């Protein structure tokens, strides 16, 4: 699920129409940290970054790195993004665009990954229903015509109570969406008016903060518009245009309207029409298409850049890992991802050589969790590390589940290869936990930078986003960096290194997200700490790696590296053969 538009536009709505936000939310955005703060170190830069730059400067100079494959299971990825060129996975067993499954893995022409939410005819799912709506609709076929619980059979009572819970949530969500639509309509009307006034006054089609420098309003309307524009740019940063921000809002408004209109529709109809599989049959696997850039791949591109944007090339940003290959897997629409797609996405990543999988998505219901659990166990057996975003609901994951998670159904065992990540800020200490972030002493393993993270987006652009979606690839990126220099570490050892090298803040009290109360920072996650790449690499150097790398694995990796190097001289338009 994409949380970005909600976070950005909610804050803007509160700002313009006079609403209020939680104190720590408002305070956390009073100033913007510098671009790339997530790579910095508190001792030298006074921001709580992950000390990545320090690691390069003091620990990694002159050392040889080894390529690492990180799968990004997300909403798609712009494979032609300039700062990701040379870092996009190529399937060495597939011949592009010949319409043949050359490597016999069930996926035709999966040159750069796979899109599990597309059809064989090239159509793709963009908007999708929520899991709660899908479950409500399924059970409404059973209980919808019953007048009260006396008509429910004894063996159905648990499901009936579950359905009543979903029904109440559906009604609440419907009211929330209606209110959101009304409020955003008002906000966007103001934004469009501001944009129109400034375009006319400045004789420009595009308004950026730089355009406003030296502008002297000649009337009260222009003065009002200028004031609002500066407040908007203070929130979104100076790099984005007013028009692009408004366009994002218009898109979110359209999605909200679609959710309202879809309340009485079959939530599986679009899936049947476009994808054509049976979403309730895990064995129906040969579906989808190879267009990993379908829909709006903004979110996945941002995530990938945090991990892998080319370091030191003088453009864009610096990613975390300097010898990493990104494998794009599209399973996340604008709406809730389906358990079947998540499970098969994990298996695809594992089967095609990913050593780390990033999952910047989540949802409150998981009716086919057993399929995802089996995929997580499969990744365990194959020694693959899974990194997941804890969620952006300002809630306790220990009491309100966010899926997927490390807890196996009907078992006390937890996945040992699973890291769940909350989002932290640049500081100060009392606001170190991002106001939107989920937390949990049992379910959240650590916090990592996730607020105002500047990274790659589509069409060779760059933007700052906030969310645990950004914190998760921080951890995945550091895991990749460690594995680059210590390739014989197992997934279990990687998890150990990351969790036992965190920066702790002893005795530090922070605002609990979503409340005005404080708690010890150490009580909001299992480790009680912040991601620290520098300390993780130092700890990794003390361990004896237990992972065995076969000649076959080495040969395949070299094939991939050689193919990527061969493609770097080609036109960016050729980067995604499916387009």
TrEMBL record:
GO terms for biological process: proteolysis. The keyword Signal applies. It comes from the Bacteria. Residues 68-506 form the Peptidase S8/S53 domain. The active site is at residues 74, 299, 469. One of its GO terms (molecular function) is serine-type endopeptidase activity. Keywords: Hydrolase, Protease, Serine protease, Signal. The keyword Hydrolase applies. Residues 1-26 form the signal peptide. Belongs to the peptidase S8 family. This is Subtilase family protein. It comes from Thermoflavifilum aggregans.
């Amino acid at each position: 699920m994409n949380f970005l538009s909600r976070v950005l536009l909610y804050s803007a709505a509160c700002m313009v129409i006079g609403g209020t936000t939680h104190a720590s939310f408002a305070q956390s955005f009073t100033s913007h940290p510098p671009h790339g703060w997530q790579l910095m170190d508190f001792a030298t830069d006074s921001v709580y970054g992950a000390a990545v730059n320090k690691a390069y400067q003091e620990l990694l100079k002159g050392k040889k790195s080894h390529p690492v494959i990180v799968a990004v299971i997300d909403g798609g990825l712009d494979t032609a993004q300039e700062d990701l060129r040379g870092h996009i996975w190529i399937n060495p067993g597939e011949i592009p665009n010949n319409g043949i499954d050359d490597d016999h893995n069930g996926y035709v022409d999966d040159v750069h990954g796979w899109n599990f939410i597309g059809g064989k005819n090239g159509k793709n799912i963009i908007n999708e229903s929520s899991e709660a709506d899908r479950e409500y609709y399924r059970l409404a076929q059973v209980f919808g015509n019953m007048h009260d619980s006396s008509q429910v059979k004894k063996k159905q009572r648990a499901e009936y109570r579950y359905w009543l819970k979903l029904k109440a949530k559906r009604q609440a969500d419907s009211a929330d969406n209606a209110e959101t639509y009304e409020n955003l309509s008002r906000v966007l009307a103001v934004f469009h008016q501001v944009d129109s006034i400034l375009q006319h006054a400045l004789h420009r089609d595009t308004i950026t903060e730089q355009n406003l420098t030296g502008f002297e309003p000649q009337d009260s309307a222009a003065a009002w518009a200028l004031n609002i524009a500066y407040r908007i740019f203070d929130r979104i940063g100076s790099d984005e245009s007013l028009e692009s921000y408004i366009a994002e809002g218009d898109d979110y408004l359209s999605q909200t309207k679609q959710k309202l209109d879809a309340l009485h529709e079959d939530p599986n109809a679009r899936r049947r029409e476009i994808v054509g599989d049976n979403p309730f049959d895990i064995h129906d696997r040969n579906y989808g298409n190879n267009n990993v850039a379908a829909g709006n791949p903004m979110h996945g591109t941002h995530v990938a850049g945090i991990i892998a944007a080319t370091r030191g090339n003088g453009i864009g940003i610096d990613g975390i890992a300097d010898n990493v290959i990104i494998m794009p897997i599209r399973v996340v629409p604008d709406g809730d991802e389906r358990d079947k797609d998540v499970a098969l996405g994990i298996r695809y990543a594992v089967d095609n050589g990913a050593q780390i999988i990033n999952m910047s998505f989540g949802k409150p219901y998981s009716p086919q969790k057993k399929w995802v659990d089996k995929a997580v166990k499969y990744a365990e057996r194959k020694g693959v590390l899974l990194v997941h975003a804890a969620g952006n609901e300002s809630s306790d994951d220990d009491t309100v589940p966010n899926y997927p998670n490390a807890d196996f159904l009907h078992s006390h065992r937890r996945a040992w290869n699973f890291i769940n990540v909350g989002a932290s800020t640049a500081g100060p200490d009392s606001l170190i936990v991002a106001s939107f972030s989920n937390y949990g002493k049992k379910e959240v393993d650590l916090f990592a930078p996730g607020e105002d993270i500047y990274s790659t987006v589509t069409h060779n652009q760059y933007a700052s986003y906030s969310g645990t979606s950004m914190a998760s690839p921080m951890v995945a990126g550091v895991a990749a960096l460690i594995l680059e220099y210590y390739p014989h570490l197992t997934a279990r050892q990687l998890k150990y290194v990351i969790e036992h090298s965190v920066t702790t803040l002893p005795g530090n009290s922070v605002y609990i997200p979503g409340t005005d109360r404080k708690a010890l920072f150490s009580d909001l996650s299992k480790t009680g700490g912040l991601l620290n790449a520098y300390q993780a690499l130092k700890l990794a150097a003390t361990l004896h790696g237990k992972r065995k790398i076969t000649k076959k694995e080495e040969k395949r990796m070299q094939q991939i590296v050689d193919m990527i190097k061969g493609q770097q001289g080609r036109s960016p338009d050729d980067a995604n053969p499916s387009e």
